[in-house]
């Protein structure tokens, strides 16, 4: 998995096409990139990131991701690797979240659609009160021209929140 992250990073830096996978990689955040402390196959919303691999209170397995957003001016999040989609098909992005502290709008999951390197659409669901593990889900039809989708776990720029995320999914809806 570390090799996959390195190849993706190099490809982006060289302007090469962004890799697209058949399924969501590392949805339960169980593997970590030792050099960055971030989960394998997930990219930070920005650098430096307030997101990190965590062994604190995972929903399943032993690990989850923690986002410790302590700024009311800057957003924090992690984006998955891209997953192949077909235009006209409905997809669901989901993640389990637990809010340890902070305010509204709290934690969110985004379903983002991509055509090449351009994000063409995004849809979200959020929760501001989740003392126990709560599943967030968002569904939408892949727009015309969409080639890939990503899941973004996120803390909004207008909130200061400490939240955990685990067990993400991106799948077509039957």
Q: Which CATH architecture is right?
A: Sandwich
**H/I helix tally:** 1
Task: Flag low-confidence runs.
Answer: 1-13
Structural domains: how many: 1
What can you tell me about this protein's structure?
With 174 residues, the protein is mainly beta. It has a single domain (2-172), classed as Jelly Rolls, CATH 2.60.120.260. It has one helix and 14 strands; from the N terminus they run αββββββββββββββ. The longest helix is centred in the N-terminal third of the chain and has 13 residues, at 2-14. Residues 1-13 have low confidence and may be disordered.
Concise structural overview:
The protein has 174 residues and is mainly β. 7% of the residues lie in helices and 50% in strands. It is built from 1 helix and 14 strands; from the N terminus they run H-E-E-E-E-E-E-E-E-E-E-E-E-E-E.
Tag the structure with descriptive keywords.
single chain; 174 residues; mainly beta; Jelly Rolls; 5-stranded antiparallel β-sheet; 14 strands
Strand and helix map with partners:
Layout: H1 2-14, E1 20-21, E2 32-33, E3 38-39, E4 42-44, E5 51-54, E6 64-69, E7 76-80, E8 82-84, E9 90-102, E10 107-115, E11 118-127, E12 134-141, E13 148-155, E14 161-172
Parallel strand pairs: 1-8
Antiparallel strand pairs: 2-3, 4-7, 5-6, 6-14, 7-13, 8-13, 9-12, 9-14, 10-11, 10-13
């Amino acid at each position: 998995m570390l090799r996959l992250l390195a190849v993706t990073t190099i490809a982006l830096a060289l302007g090469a096409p962004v890799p697209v996978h058949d399924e969501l990689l590392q949805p339960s955040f169980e593997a970590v990139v030792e050099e960055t402390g971030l989960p394998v196959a997930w990219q930070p919303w920005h650098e430096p990131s307030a997101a990190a691999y965590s062994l604190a209170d995972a929903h399943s397995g032993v690990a989850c991701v923690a986002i410790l957003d302590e700024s009311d001016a800057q957003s924090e999040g992690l984006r998955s690797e891209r997953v192949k989609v077909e235009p006209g098909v409905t997809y669901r992005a989901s993640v389990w979240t637990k809010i340890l502290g902070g305010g509204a709008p709290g934690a969110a999951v985004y379903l983002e659609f991509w055509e090449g390197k351009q994000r063409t659409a995004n849809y979200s669901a959020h929760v501001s009160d989740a003392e126990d593990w709560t599943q967030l889900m968002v569904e939408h039809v892949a727009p015309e021209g969409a080639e890939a989708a990503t899941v973004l776990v996120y803390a909004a720029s207008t909130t200061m929140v400490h939240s955990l995320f685990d067990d993400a999914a991106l799948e077509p809806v039957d």
